[in-house]
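Late entry, written up from scratch paper. The run itself happened at the end of the previous shift, but nothing got recorded in the book at the time, so transcribing now.
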Amino acid sequence: MNRGKLKDLDDSNTDTSTPPLLATSTVASPKMETDVCYPDISINRTQVSIHTPFITSNLLSKLAGDVVVACTVALGISPILTVIDKAIVQKAAGTHGVWQSSWNSIGNIVKNPGTYFRSPMFLMMWGVYASTYCTANCLKTLVERKEYVDKTNHYETKKQKDNGIGKFGVFAMTTLVNSSSTMLKDRYYASQFGTTVAASTKMPKVTYFLWGTRDCMVIGSSFILPDIVCDVLTQNSDVERSTALRISQFACPVLTQFAAGPVQLLSLDIYNRPLPNMSLKEVLSERLKFQFQNFFSIVGARISRIAPAYGVGGIGNTYLRDKWRDSLLRK
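Output as recorded:
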């Protein structure tokens, strides 16, 4: 009898109107389909982004073009730069005027072109600008490739930070290569075309420091500042980006020479005239007097030098680099 009562109680507590198994399967089936679908999509995305390659044949072709363009541009601008640099050194030494030295150098190049192109005066100048443009071009290409890979892999949170690091890296490495090679070239020019007394003395450390400061100003105004000025021009005027970039590439290096010129002049003056027997006041007076006497001629010479080196050279480098990449796209 007890068993019968227990059975009756169990039957009374059981709801037979809705089958439990059917109710559970009806509600849960859409959820199960959803849970199965989305993990498959996320896994596929992860697999695609992980296998995005950094080094490709297209990247190697771009880097090869960067080197060819850099060497070609340097070959075109180096002759005029050797003439002007020699004139600046001889003007600072007081042995020749700028125009006198320039015409003598041009005459020697025309009379003996083979000797000139084999001379250290030309080869060192070509080496400076070939290595500078090569470094800047290749680093820009690598930074662009990294930005593309990061974008493909959906690394958007690091994009702004990485862009800043990339631009600073291009500036730092280009400045390091340019400054070190330029110092070797300047030391040779100063010893060959400066005063006889200075040629037999050791190069002062402050002269190296001033050369490094000048190079930072020149590189920054040639490779970093034009992009910034270009963005400002396009945002605040109706000028097209290509036109704004050409204007900034030409104007920024030229205007910087009003600051870089006196630095260059001071470095050569310290090398040519140590002034060891004068007081600090007398030395400062002599240095300032020398600056005022030679400011316009040296700045004018540096502007005429920097215009082909980074103005015309920068425009030509960008043009040839773009043409190379266009040819890669057509293949």
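Residues 4-51 have pLDDT under 50 and may be disordered.
(Scratch paper discarded after transcription.)
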